[in-house]
């Protein structure tokens, strides 16, 4: 059995961010099993964290940016590729600025940090996802696909828009091949792109010490190329980092032509939707499995790690009823995190007027769903059993895509702060693996 792994010891590194140009101190810190990879902004009040998951991607222009509310971390892909390549499943990345230090533009320094910190097993099995059927998509000039395969393999062709420096490389990714074949490949850009990048507030920390510049037929660098095909290998490094946002190791053959961060993330979302489909089918068509919650003693909360809550248990947790109950089932409970689902049917009463001939689920009801799931999550504490969760406020609200009849709304919530009877949570609603809305909500527990 392959076990999940974390770091043995914390370790730090300082430098500048490639795009922000900010001086930044970074630490890799061990994390408990099932924490995943999380970015922690220690320079901000409350030291907020952003899980490294696809639903938190907000920008893919020249790098991958994650956000939760107003908190952002830019250029996460090299760090994530390192953890994925080295087999680290759980870790906290502490930063005192909005971007990891770029080091020399590759992942070599990050690999050194992992090796120096050491890696230890955590006693829980590592569950990977094996691609079940081929996925293909086109995003701009990028053509991306993933095929079933017995290991993780990446095949890539890269070039610029004029077809210069066309390069091809293919490798089965293991910790050994990651370190040897991909981790040393540095980021690069073409000379004619520099003016655009600077005008758009990017590469403010860029230099020939942390990037390769290609000018016509000349390659400008402070040292010889580390690989004869270093550019395509760096593209593959980025692919690994962006697909690590799935939150689970991938087993499949990724084939990429002219990849980009936007295309990598789009492929990740398609894979996430494929992961979700069998789970949703099982929930829809299969009888509910026996749950540990059914054996609880009287008065105990059914909101425990590893449990699922059917509609009967949901109604024991929430006072809401038709037409205002926005949770059909709780599918996952893990620490301060919970996932639930709501089947959006054509029979929902609000579709009569919102809008005739063009039915769309009101965004405020998605907010209500987040608040209801957060209220259930607060019930893990025995003293909160039987109380009501009053929705107090919502911040950093974003509605990204419409929700229509026939959609299955997945509501993911993480409690970020609890004080007495006041709770604060970050929530995300997804359909087919894509974020449709997100918000930070505050609520208060009161006696019924």
Describe the structure.
Helix 1 crosses helix 5 and helix 5 (230-243) runs parallel beside helix 6 (261-285). The radius of gyration is 23 Å and the shape is globular. The chain contains eight helices and 25 strands. The longest helix is centred in the middle third of the chain and has 25 residues, at 261-285. Strands 11, 12, 13, 14, 15 and 19 form a six-stranded mixed β-sheet that branches. A six-stranded antiparallel β-sheet has the order 20-21-23-24-25-22. It has helices at 77-86, 108-117, 175-182, 194-199, 230-243, 261-285, 311-317, 363-378; strands at residues 3-7, 11-16, 23-30, 37-41, 49-51, 57-59, 65-68, 71-73, 91-95, 119-125, 129-130, 135-139, 142-147, 152-158, 167-172, 188-190, 212-215, 218-220, 250-257, 329-334, 337-343, 387-399, 408-419, 422-431, 434-447. 21% of the residues lie in helices and 35% in strands. The chain has two domains: 3-278, lpxc deacetylase, domain 1 (Ribosomal Protein S5, domain 2, 2-Layer Sandwich); 287-447, Hotdog Thioesterase (Thiol Ester Dehydrase, Chain A, Roll), CATH 3.10.129. By secondary structure, it is an alpha+beta fold.
Topology of helices and strands:
Elements: E1 3-7, E2 11-16, E3 23-30, E4 37-41, E5 49-51, E6 57-59, E7 65-68, E8 71-73, H1 77-86, E9 91-95, H2 108-117, E10 119-125, E11 129-130, E12 135-139, E13 142-147, E14 152-158, E15 167-172, H3 175-182, E16 188-190, H4 194-199, E17 212-215, E18 218-220, H5 230-243, E19 250-257, H6 261-285, H7 311-317, E20 329-334, E21 337-343, H8 363-378, E22 387-399, E23 408-419, E24 422-431, E25 434-447
């Amino acid at each position: 059995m392959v076990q999940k792994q974390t770091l043995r010891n914390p370790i730090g590194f300082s430098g500048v961010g490639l795009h922000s140009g900010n001086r930044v101190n970074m630490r890799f810190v061990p994390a408990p099993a099932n924490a995943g990879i999380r970015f922690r902004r220690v320079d901000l009040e409350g030291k907020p964290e952003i899980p490294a998951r696809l639903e938190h991607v907000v920008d893919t222009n020249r790098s991958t940016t994650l956000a939760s509310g107003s908190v952002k971390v830019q250029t996460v892909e090299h760090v994530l590729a390192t953890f994925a390549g080295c087999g680290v499943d759980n870790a906290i990345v502490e930063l005192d600025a909005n971007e990891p230090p770029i080091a020399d533009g590759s992942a070599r320094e990050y690999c050194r940090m992992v090796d120096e910190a050491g890696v230890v097993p955590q006693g829980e099995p590592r569950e990977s996802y094996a691609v079940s059927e081929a996925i293909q998509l086109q995003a701009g000039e990028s053509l991306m696909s993933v095929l079933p395969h017995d290991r993780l393999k990446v095949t890539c062709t890269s070039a610029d828009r004029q077809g210069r420096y066309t390069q091809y490389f293919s490798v089965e990714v293991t910790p050994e091949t990651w370190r040897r074949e991909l981790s040393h490949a540095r980021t690069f850009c073409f000379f004619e792109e520099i003016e655009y990048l600077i005008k758009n507030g990017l590469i403010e920390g860029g230099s020939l010490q942390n990037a390769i510049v290609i000018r016509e037929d000349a390659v400008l660098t402070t040292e010889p190329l580390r690989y004869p095909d270093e550019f395509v290998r760096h593209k593959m490094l980025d692919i690994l980092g962006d697909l690590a946002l799935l939150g689970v190791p991938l087993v499949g053959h990724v084939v990429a032509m002219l990849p980009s961060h936007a295309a990598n993330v789009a492929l990740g979302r398609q894979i996430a939707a494929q992961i979700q489909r069998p789970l949703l089918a099982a929930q829809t068509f299969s009888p509910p499995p026996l749950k540990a919650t059914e054996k609880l003693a009287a008065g105990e909360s059914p909101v425990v790690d590893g449990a699922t809550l059917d509609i009967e248990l949901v109604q024991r947790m929430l006072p809401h009823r038709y037409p205002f109950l926005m949770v059909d089932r709780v599918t996952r409970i893990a620490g301060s995190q919970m996932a639930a689902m709501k089947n959006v049917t054509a029979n929902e009463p609000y579709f009569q007027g919102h809008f005739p001939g063009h039915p769309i689920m009101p965004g405020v009801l998605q907010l209500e769903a987040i608040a209801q799931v957060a209220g259930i999550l607060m019930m893990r504490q025995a003293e909160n059993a039987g109380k009501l969760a009053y929705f107090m406020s919502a911040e950093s609200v974003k509605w990204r895509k419409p929700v229509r009849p026939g959609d299955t709304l997945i509501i993911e919530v993480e409690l970020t702060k609890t004080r007495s009877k006041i709770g604060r949570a970050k929530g995300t609603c997804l359909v087919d693996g894509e974020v449709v809305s997100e918000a930070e909500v505050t609520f208060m527990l009161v006696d019924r």
